[in-house]
């Protein structure tokens, strides 16, 4: 577990509040608080846990505010370590919650589904991806499923100004990590809240859901978003405030590094698929991951498969691989068997 850093005064009414994510290797998520005449506005809220809530309340206290004074919160994306406390915050303060409409739609589709239904959906995807029976049964015995947070009550689109009096804070839509991921540009102070889109050392998860979907192109969206964010006016003057790790500068260079990382991954997958048709599970299990494949729990393997699926989906879009076989157990093959096309 990573050590949670202290609350920091970043100057001119901006505070960094690390909110822990208990029992999770993520460690913590930075929540940022911006002072405004009507009360502080937050960037993200943190994980839904009593320890996380206590850290947020205490961090606001150190910044000179009570939680019931919070005016609103902009959620960079719907993932639980960023949006988990939205409902509790709104109940305590009456704060508005803003999110890009694409992520709000993801939450809307999850409404009304039971945990059993969500788990069944994951199991079905694992079977179609070619996961062995022991992985499927291990997940079935101890499922971990996504429980959606409270829905937002305000929509924030690309380029739209956030309701923070006296500050020129605007949304920059950066889809990929999620369909509605937002970065936030604080003009006049050369600051960019990057959420999970650009992190200084690691690359965020970009997955395809459902795993064998032939619709959408999350990795293609993500790479386009990296190129776009790297071309923001004055990009290399910006101080980037991510949700994890540390603050950094050199945005354009970091965005290029992230794109290059995925292009290398795509080239590797083309070579592997060129050796013969493969199921999603077979290809995923042959790749290198931060944790060894043998040590991964079934849910972690499912997440790895979703990332592989996103790469395959982009390769399909580029015309380098194609799916074949029955719909209930697709395989991917090189468009020209035995060759490794250049990307």
UniProtKB/TrEMBL annotation:
Coiled-coil positions: none
Any Pfam family the entry gives: Lactamase_B
Domain Metallo-beta-lactamase residues, every copy: 28-244
Bilayer-spanning residue ranges: none
Name recorded for this polypeptide: MBL fold metallo-hydrolase
Domain of life (superkingdom): Bacteria
PANTHER family in UniProt: ENDORIBONUCLEASE LACTB2 (PTHR23131), METALLO-BETA-LACTAMASE SUPERFAMILY POTEIN (PTHR23131:SF4)
